[in-house]
Amino acid sequence: MINDALAPSNTLLNPQAIKELFNSGGASLLKGLSHMADDLLHNNGLPSQTTKDAFEVGRTVAATPGAVVFRNEMFELIQYRPMSEKQFSRPVLIVPPQINKYYIFDLSPANSFVQYALKNGLSTFIISWRNPDIRHREWGLSSYVEAAEQAMNICRAISGAREVNLVGACAGGLTIAALLGHLQVKRQTRRVASATYMVSLLDSQIDSPATLFIDEQALEAAKRRSYQRGVLEGSEMSRVFSWMRPNDLIWTYWINNYLLGKSPPPFDILYWNNDTTRL
Asked: GO MF annotations for this entry (predicted)?
């Protein structure tokens, strides 16, 4: 990580930056300084990976037709409109991560898993978790497991199917794993036909890039700070994820935004990644 930070390409010695400086008559440097000042004020000092107007939720991302069929204090359940003449009888329930918004599964049309599923005849439901505040500080994994079970039962009731296919991503995968354990104890696992896990770390004893930033002392400090505030801010989690892939998520944009004076190119996944929620 230190070697990446000290790379000559991250300084004004970068040949591309020097060329842009001369070609623009110094304008690239002024724009870069402006971008840096804005990021210091509004982006925790990290280079922006996207612009706020790159996409619009409900128009250019998260735009697949659907309706909220259930709502309570903790989540909304969205059912999408079919896109095929025939549909499988068994529905799919997507459980997205609680640390980001649901539309990672429904980005721009070319990158929408939801549209892919619908066009292939899958009746698709997705949970949209509430963005919590200090009033919800007592919510824990058991609360999310209970909510996922409730959503699953609603899917079964609406579709008339006995079984549901579960899809969980990141912390959503951890949630459905815990849900399956809960159903096993109740001898009700037959309500689930399949479970698919996407980038879900189920064994925390396995080393991962995240362990570079976490030890027992740091974890306990984070717990205390989160409990005092009532929530963990999404921007704090986003910083950790960025430093797990610094070349792709930090230094690439350092060069583009500051040294070349350009705006970051539109990228729906990074727009979603920066549209954070609290936990």
From this structure: acyltransferase activity
